[in-house]
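Narrative of activities, Objective 1.

The group set out to show that a structural description can be obtained from nothing but a protein's sequence at a throughput compatible with the screening campaign. Below is one input-output pair from the validation batch, recorded exactly as produced.
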Amino acid sequence: MARMTKTERIAREGLMKNLIQLMRDDWIPLRIETEIPDAWHTLEADVDVTEPKEKVTLYLDRSVARYYRAMGKGYQARINRLLATWAQMHIAREVKLEKMLNARLARNNETDC
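Output recorded for this entry:
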C-alpha cells in the first residue's frame, strides 16, 4: 500500500471513528429493520422509481459541506445517494466493520513484530 498523505491519514482516522460510533449507536441494530422505507423493499424491481423528497435541516462539518458543494450542481442529490447507499449496505449486512477492524489489527500486530 502506498504511503498516505497527512490529509489521507486524517480522513481515514476520521472515517474509522465515525464508523465505530455508528456501529455503537443502539438505534441501528434495534430499529433499522422496522424503519426501512417501503420503496427499499422493492428497489431491485423498481430501479427507476424515486421516493418523494423530505426537507430536513442538516448540520454538516464545514469541510464536508465545502467538499460536496465544490462538486457543483446536484451535490445534495450526491449526499442523499451516499446516505442511502450506506443505509442499504447496513440493511444488507454488507458492512463488516468488526471483521475489517480485526483484520487491520492483525496486520498491524504482524508489522509491529
